[in-house]
Structures are given as structure tokens and as C-alpha cells.
Amino acid sequence: MVISAYYLQRAFTIKAFSLFILLAGLGAIGVGLFPETTGISHLVAAFITFIFMGLAALMSYRIVRSPLNYVSIILGVLTLVTMLLFTTGNNLGLGVGGMERMIVYPMLVWGLAFAGYLLNRFPEGVS
């Protein structure tokens, strides 16, 4: 994700979007470096990853075409809302693990959809 932020900046010139991807990637690196047993370090890294991935999904509505732009907004909002619910201790009866999945799964779906969009839009790559 960190490397892709550079190429996304070159392809779309939307600084906020590529910055969100960069920060989410750095957060994801932190999640890997600090396992859940490290406590606050892991939580901060996960928070950074989820917030900036949600914001990147929302920002991508300016890049992608319909219907993916609407799907991106829905998935970004879903991630941010479930993140807010999770941090306030409202697990909607799903438990901690269930809420964590409700945060992560929309971002995984968005990432796959956005990657597919990029493969279709730039089949030869970005030079």
C-alpha cells in the first residue's frame, strides 16, 4: 500500500487520496510489527489503518465511475461507523471479534473492487 500510494498519486493527482492510502499502509505495517499482545501499539496502528482506509474509500468516489463510486461510499461509511461503534464499546451483540470483522471486511471488499477497477482502467500500467 505504501508503494501503491506513489503510483496512485501519479495516476490521479489527488493528494488527499494517495496520502490516505500511504497512511493506511503505514498503519498496516504497524499492525504487523506490533501483534495484539503488545497492547496500545497494536491498537493505535489498527486505528490508523482503519480510519485512513475508510477515508480513502470515501475519497475514491471522485476517481471511480458508477456504480463503484456509490459502493465505495457505502463501504467507507460502513467501516467508519463500525469503527466508531467499536471504540465506544457498542458491539451490536456481535462481540469484539465480530465487530472487528465488520470493520475489516468492507475494506477488503473495497480494496479488491478498486484494484479490479484499476486493472480495467490501466491495463498497461502507469508509467
Query: β content, as a range?
Result: under 5%
Could you spell the SSE succession in H and E letters? HHHHH
The largest sheet, given as strand count, sense and whether it forms a barrel, is:
none
Shape: globular
- Cα(first) to Cα(last) distance is 18 Å
Uncertain parts: none
Helix content: over 70%
Q: How many structurally independent domains?
A: 1
State the helix count.
Answer: 5
Task: Please give the radius of gyration in angstroms.
Answer: 15 Å
Q: Would you tell me the structural class of the helices and strands?
A: mainly alpha
Number of strand elements: 0
What is the residue-mean pLDDT, rounded to a whole number?
93
How would you sum up this structure, described in words?
With 127 residues, the chain is an all-alpha fold. It has one domain. It has helices at residues 2-12, 15-33, 40-59, 68-87, 95-121. It is globular. The model has no long low-confidence stretch (mean pLDDT 93).
Task: Summarize the structure in short.
The protein has helices at residues 2-12, 15-33, 40-59, 68-87, 95-121.
